[in-house]
TrEMBL record:
Transmembrane residue ranges: none
Listed PANTHER family: 5-NITROIMIDAZOLE ANTIBIOTICS RESISTANCE PROTEIN, NIMA-FAMILY-RELATED PROTEIN-RELATED, FLAVIN-NUCLEOTIDE-BINDING PROTEIN
Protein name stated in the entry: Nitroimidazol reductase NimA-like FMN-containing flavoprotein (Pyridoxamine 5'-phosphate oxidase superfamily)
Entry-linked SUPFAM superfamilies: FMN-binding split barrel (SSF50475)
InterPro entries xrefs: Pyridox_Oxase-rel (IPR024747), Split_barrel_FMN-bd (IPR012349)
Pfam families: Pyridox_ox_2 (PF12900)
Highest taxon listed in the record's lineage: Bacteria
Amino acid sequence: MTLTNTTAPRRIRRLAERQTTDRDALFALLDEELVGHLAAVVDGVPVVVPMGYARDGEHLLVHGSTGGGFALRAAAEGATVAFSVTALDGLVFARSLFDSSMNYRSAVVYGVLEPVDDERADAALLALSERLMPGRSAEVRAITRREAAATRVLRLALDDVVMKTRAAGASEDTDDGEDHSTWAGVVPRERRWGTPVPSPLTPEGTPTPVSVVALMTRSRSEHRLP
């Protein structure tokens, strides 16, 4: 399955061999990361804004304020936007700075933002919440009508996507002329959640919520040493 559904695939020109059209690899990247960067041209000026997102099947979901914001303007104008997501998986230490590199996965989604209709807005907001803070919605009060009215969910189809990856060691060869007594290799990058810090107004002794405990437990199990 390719990364593009309805349009001709975009081609990477530099290091084209690093382009992938593996749909599962795309979904894995999007489901693993929490923040992307939305780019658009507003009044002739390029604007890039980082924001949380969630994947809902074949779409990305983002949200913004109905009171303004370039994302809503871009959606209203039918402008093409780009949304990028990157995971840094490791630093590659070669025997020269020129050959040193990074292991990474990156994807850029192109398309037009579409407002989610009112009938699906609540479900879309819940999907965003569950992606960022699984289980938290059951622990806090429901969103008010005023809050809902101030929030607009937008979606971006995963129809026009380009993805690039590097997952290899340092470039080296037995006859490359380098001093092989100099260490070369990869330092993987691991990420985990730290110890929760209660807010100043949270009474002392208040139990840590289930959603936070689950997040911590999952993070530690994913990074447990063999």
